[in-house]
Design brief:
heterodimer; A: 481 residues; alpha/beta; TIM Barrel; eight-stranded parallel beta sheet; 21 strands; globular; B: 213 residues; Methyltransferase, Methionine Synthase (B12-binding Domains), Chain A, domain 1; Rossmann fold; five-stranded parallel beta sheet
Chain lengths: 481, 213
């Protein structure tokens, strides 16, 4: 399949050169002292008063050579490991929303660890999702245990790769300790790290923070899987123009990627973005806009230029309910990104951009994910698939409905959705004129009534609760069905 | 009429001209209240009206606020303490651990455009920082912003510290993960959902406070 691309080969080179110039002449404000030292050691100019680091072009180019071409997500069950770009496009649920639409009342409230447990169970059972990025926060987490609560609830209920962030080093180390218990030992964990990490160390424009940068350096030193997402917001934290935002975002990616190589040569990367254009009528954050997809496509092209996997938060919607707006914003954004060659889509379950998780939305997004994967499969040409013999046998005016070939292909040729309706109107009326949100939630409940095959053995739970006091009170039973 | 020219200059985003016209009016001994209310504040009210109908976009709102501020800075030293009080002093910052400041800067600029004296402390400010600024600037209102959900505890700590310092100083919180429920939980005086809302709330808080006295 040929990707839909905006830039010519020459233009990609020019964008790359513009990014290098930004890094060398304007520089990056690096607030993390350790990072500044790493940049300095590698030959960058560090302005000690301001903390601005200027990365010479030749230094960036040198470390760029080390960018590996693939990234692997690992889960408790190796069958669910995914490597991009080979296994792409992979779907990762969108994450860290503070709120949830209560599936009983339909009202928005703060999300809890019980919600995470239910979502993890669901994601474990939905083939369209490859990685579970922890969808929400946990308002019920005991003091100081917010990350442990979230990761425990997630890992316990999902055997697929789990990914999320941590707010500080203490919580990161605790999460890694949890991982080691699950793996059986620290050594077993080192051999097969089953937790995947993500941060936003870069704050546009051109700034690297303290805490997230610290975590990225730490994980990179240890050879543990981590990647960052670059988020310029045109009109606010980048120029109000697409090519300029592309160049700045690209520079920000290079700064982070090159830092990671400086820490440990050959560190796997993902070129991940959530680049947006602010709605300048009000300043509102507008990830549902088509420009998000356009920028994603541009960044995916640059990822291919660097021969690294590309990904990002795509398919977010500004809508607050599962209506046409949420349908077309998620649908159009993800389709454009897919046709632009993205390897990893961070999408699934959120309404109101990044604020609220909704069970119905995660089911609808699952169908969209399955449709996207189908789209990427494309039409394969194989001579035997032309069915020349069959066409001749059935002949003019005949039917294919009862052919053996049809029987053999009936479950696999097309994606068969459970939530979207194909009923005629009459039937739809008789069945209550259901809206998609209703049908989606019904489907989610159906899945959640079944046992979760991913659940921890009781012995593992005991070990974890013995090690981390305070987690016993955490609700891990999931949503009521 | 000259004060009308000030009004026009603000709406045309003519910063220098606005400052010059205010100087001129001061020299002519025009009533201060007139210059402030009819020239500057009325202009910003018109800007706000055009912004809420979608005629003015955000950058125009900000440009107008900067222009208004230029005029106000010329006027401020001459304002009686009564008038100064009504205008109010606001300290604003992003809380400890958070480096995101665009929304907060938007609020700061719009508060300035509404006539408030605004001290913008920047980002990553801890509870102590807020209290010291409140003390130093005799602030009437402390505004706190956060984008990261993980920094919300720092917001709670800051609100507590400000109240411990002086119960009369009011606090207003905002930012993407902040809700009215959270604001109430941590004991903040007010919550605002966005920058225009922040201006409305700030004005209300100042008016209420003056009436209480």
């Amino acid at each position: 399949m040929n990707w839909a691309e905006f830039l010519t080969a020459e233009e990609m080179k020019l964008v790359h050169e513009a990014s290098l110039a930004i890094l060398e002449e304007t520089g990056i404000l690096v607030r993390n002292e350790k990072a500044r030292r790493i940049f300095a050691r590698a030959g960058c100019r560090v302005e000690s008063e301001s903390g601005v680091v200027k990365i010479p072009g030749n230094v960036a180019e040198e470390y760029r050579k080390a960018f590996p071409p693939s990234f692997t997500f690992r889960g408790r069950d190796p069958r669910y490991d995914r490597t991009i770009p080979q296994d792409g496009p992979i779907m990762i649920t969108a994450s860290s929303a503070p709120d949830i639409i209560d599936p009983e009342t339909g009202r928005q409230r703060r999300a809890t660890s019980g919600d995470i447990a239910g979502i993890a169970h669901l994601v474990n059972e939905l083939p369209g999702y490859d990685v579970f990025s922890i969808s929400t926060l946990a308002a019920d987490a005991p003091e100081g245990l917010s990350s442990l609560t979230r990761f425990y609830a997630a890992l316990r209920n999902c055997a697929k790769p789990v990914r999320s962030n941590t707010p500080n080093m203490k919580e990161l180390e605790e999460v890694l300790a949890l991982g080691a218990i699950i793996a059986g030992s620290e050594e077993a964990y080192r051999k097969r790290p089953l937790i995947n990490h993500h941060y936003c160390p870069v704050v546009s424009p051109l700034t690297m923070d303290v805490e997230s940068t610290e975590a990225v350096i730490y994980l990179t030193e240890k050879g543990l899987p981590v990647y960052g997402t670059i988020c310029p917001n045109a009109g606010m934290s980048s120029p109000l123009g697409l090519i300029a935002t592309l160049a700045q975002g690209n520079a920000e990616f290079l700064a982070l990627a090159v830092l990671m190589q400086m820490v440990r040569i050959g560190t796997p990367l993902i070129y991940a973005v959530l680049a947006t254009v602010a709605d300048m009528r009000t300043g509102n954050y507008a990830p549902g806009a088509i420009e998000t997809a356009m920028l994603q496509m541009g960044h995916s092209q640059m990822a291919r230029y660097y021969n690294v996997p590309s990904g990002g938060y795509i398919g977010l919607t500004n809508a607050h309910t599962n209506d046409a707006q949420s349908g077309y914003e998620t649908g159009m954004g993800t389709t454009a990104a897919l046709l632009g060659g993205i390897d990893m889509l961070n999408m699934g379950g959120l309404l109101g951009s990044l604020m609220v998780f909704d069970f119905a939305k995660v089911m609808i997004d699952h169908e969209i994910a399955m449709m996207l994967k189908q789209l990427r499969k494309g039409i394969r040409y194989r001579q035997e698939d032309l069915c020349m013999g069959l066409i001749d046998t059935v002949g003019p005016g005949g039917t294919f409905m009862d052919q053996i070939h049809t029987l053999e292909k009936m479950r696999t040729t097309a994606y068969l959705p459970k939530v979207a309706t194909r009923d005629i109107r009459d039937r739809w009326e008789k069945e209550g004129r259901t809206e998609i949100g209703f049908r989606a939630l019904k489907e989610a409940r159906l899945i959640l009534t079944r046992d979760n095959p991913a659940l921890f053995e009781a012995e593992l739970d005991r070990k974890i609760l013995a090690r981390f006091t305070g987690l016993e009170g955490v609700a891990v039973s999931g949503i009521p069905v | 009429m000259a004060v009308q020219e000030i009004f026009n200059a603000v709406l045309a985003f003519e910063r220098d001209r606005t400052a010059d016209l205010v100087k001129e009016e001061l020299q002519k001994q025009t009533d201060l209240q007139l210059i402030l209310n009819e020239g500057l504040i009325r202009a910003m009210d018109e800007v706000g009206r055009r912004f809420s109908t979608g005629e003015f976009f955000l950058p125009e709102m900000l440009l107008a606020a900067k222009t208004m501020k230029a005029g106000l800075e010329v006027l401020r030293p001459h304002l009686s303490s009564n008038m100064g009080e009504l205008m109010g002093t606001v300290v604003i910052a992003t809380v400890k651990g958070d480096l995101h400041d665009i929304g907060k800067n938007l609020v700061a600029m719009m508060l300035e455009g509404a006539g408030f004296k605004v001290i913008n402390l920047g980002v990553d400010v801890d509870a102590d920082g807020f209290v010291r600024a409140a003390e130093e600037h005799k602030a009437d209102l402390i505004c706190m912003s956060a984008l990261l959900t993980t920094t919300m505890p720092a917001m709670a700590a800051a609100v507590k510290a400000v109240q411990a310092y002086d119960r009369r100083v009011q606090t207003m919180v905002g930012g993407a993960p902040v809700t009215k429920v959270f604001a109430d939980q941590i004991g903040a005086t007010a919550y605002s959902a966005d920058a225009p809302d922040a201006v409305v709330m700030a004005r209300k808080l100042m008016t209420d406070r003056v009436h209480k006295q």
